[in-house]
User: Fold these one by one.
Assistant:
Number 1:
Amino acid sequence: MRRFPVRSLAVLAAVGTLALSGCGTETSGAADSAPAAGGADRTFRAHQVMQLTEVHEETGMTLLEGPTFDRNGDLLVVDVTAPPGDPKVLRVDVRKKTSQAAHTDDRGNYTSAQTSPHDGRLYLTDYSHGEVVSLAPDGSDLRTFFSGEVDGARMNPDDIAFDRKGNLYISDSRSQSPGDARGRVVRIDRDGEKATVVADSLASPNGISFDEDYQGLWVSELTQNRISYLRLDEEGAMTSRHTAIRVDAGIAQTDSIAVDADGNLYQALHGRAAMAVYSRTGEHLATVEVPARAEGLESATNVAITPGGTKAYMTVSGPAGGYLYTFDALAEGIRQSNGG
């Protein structure tokens, strides 16, 4: 998720959303759209699928996040800054290039979406209210899954990663101050009864994804432009932690993360309509960009790769609106490359 600048925080507060202060298997056919796995660093172009949103008059912006395929093959996308009454979750048919509202309410600022392997419900993080909520697959039946403090501190939950059993791992940013590393990774059991801190002293953690074999978590730290790796034991406790990749992004910052079947990392960039792709050993394999002629697009926030296929769908936003772009991934999509 893109961090809210001061202006955006004020706008969200004005509309009552702040309390106290991201399925087709067809290929594009474009020769420049697929990087060679294990090859040299390449830059290649994503292709526009469709525009999903316009800038909201009430909030002054639109911000797409959390793309995730549901069990019917539809792509679900959240609009973080959508005001009450406008779609906060959209359902997209990527083949027909159509979209429709899947859910709205008068409160949430949802920054990610992910379907649980435990109960099949769609889980959303409400960044502003420190909550995790869930929906039925059709977008109905809104329930609060978790709310309240964790180890004495309220969360600002950003992205979600599920383990195989359906337990949630949340990137809890907690702070937007560049020099204040108070962020955490929080584990919430699949019933929502117990929440524990897996790691702390992180610099505005944003993206979070398990690696391809569920041995550890990749976590992007937005205000340090780095990706950390947290190795976990069988109980979900951290056994080691280190800085794995330092992202040279200039004025852009590290946003959400996805991982494909070969373990490659797709690092979204806030402040640039692009995504950096790395191997699990830290080699910079490729950079995905929207065409230069696509003006008014400032950030690529997240990506979902078709489960079992290589077609990737990237959410891109800016003053021009919220768009969906596509490119061919280096390897097949798995749960770890399906939103978060």
Number 2:
Amino acid sequence: MTSARQEFRAMWAADRRANAAYPKSRVVLRWFRAAQRWRATSGPLGRLMFLAVGGSYKVVTEGFMGIELPVSTTVGPGLRLRHGVGLVVNPASRIGAGVMLRHGVTLGNRRAADDCPVIEDGVELGVGVVVIGAVTVGAGARIGPNAVVHRDVPAGAVVLSPESVVRS
């Protein structure tokens, strides 16, 4: 069984490699992973550290940077953030490994609080993409800029905007 610290290090290493040319993304994701690590650590020290790290992460990223990526969101290793501004992710969304999120992306619920998207491994989401509701975007899919996705996308598919045309 891996500890929260080991998991943090593995996730952060993958994020660091995926964002080698993007220093802002590296800072945001290191902070995100550190907050996740302290959230997973039990005991008074874990709670205190989460309050400090998670609180400062939330204030700075949401308040000043316009990046709403909650610490409670399940995110696989190697997340690639491109610019990040205007990013809104519902905490109940699930994001796989090696996913790219560009600025203006929204992953949100449709009817209930947990009615959120599942983004599988290797998916690329273009600028301004909105994925809404309990949909699955299959592994390796590419979603074009400003597309609105409200139904499942098969693995490897390309979704074009503005009318969400799906090509398999």
Number 3:
Amino acid sequence: MRTTLNRDERGVRRGAAVLLILAALAGTGAVRAEAATRALPAGCSGAAPIRCHYAVPPGEYDVTVSIGGAASAGRTEMWVEARRLMLPATSTAAGAGASYSFTVDVRQPEGQPTGQGGNGNPGLDLRFAGAAPQVSAVSVSPAPRPLVAYLAGDSTVCDQPAAPYTGWGQMITTAVRPGAAIANYGDSGESSGSYLSNSALFPALLAKVRTNDPVFIQLGHNDKQTSASAYRNNLTTMITRVRAKGGIPVLVTPPVRRLFDGNRLTATALHVNGVGVNLPAEMRSVGAAQGVPLIDLTARSKTLIESLGPSASAQLFLRSSVDGVTDNTHFSQYGATRIGDLLLQSIREQNLPLATYLR
């Protein structure tokens, strides 16, 4: 949601936002009275980036921010928790402001559920970065009953704690309107079997699923020695258990690796594993047999990567010259954004539960 505010409206919004923040922080420590008049909202400090912290328990929260409004032009992007992008770099003219709203999932640990890369800070963390970040108001309140879209996946999906590694689940958050939140339970190194059995992963996710919440399941990168029957059984078990909770399972075939033979991707890139199992084909078969919606991210990413070719496609992955590491499986921020866009396109085309909440 975006609205342009005049100077008086900005003053009213700023005052109201500070009051909401003070209410949200009641009982978490003394807040000085002069916080209402200082340049940054209560709970925020720094300049580039500006960091804000709110001591709220795990759950879903509606967050509204006002950016700009300073004497100079601004260029601001907003990240939450473990590098989830909510607002791409956005320009504001000198003396102008804009307001944006989101629904944010807060959990602990805030990044990968098994704590890989660290547990982060309890509560809600916001970070305003960019060439000239500006924030004039922040309000935080519990979301009454949002749709929560759960992501069950591996390192190509998860909230990667440190750049340059980026999961597509960290980038699709920019497209989601308030009233829906992305709960990313992706975790590095997980196969379909390990994800299903680890109490911090599928069982933890399943415990939170409510009626009509979609659960997007993308596993396969690490099923390198998994048999066809085991892979199918693992996926079917997840589908059955999500449905038993009233959730809506959605299968997502894994995006390709960047491994070329000439101008075409290899069988390994297309997830034919070490024991000859074509994992995307098995997932398609399970989806058809179970009547489950399926997003064919393998096919869509294959088309994208092969259209770019061996050279240009490198920018979607990690390059030694830019990132300090060469990695043809994991995405750069740009690559995660492009792959996430393919997923969002499929959600819209199939009118999946999250579709009505996409910008």
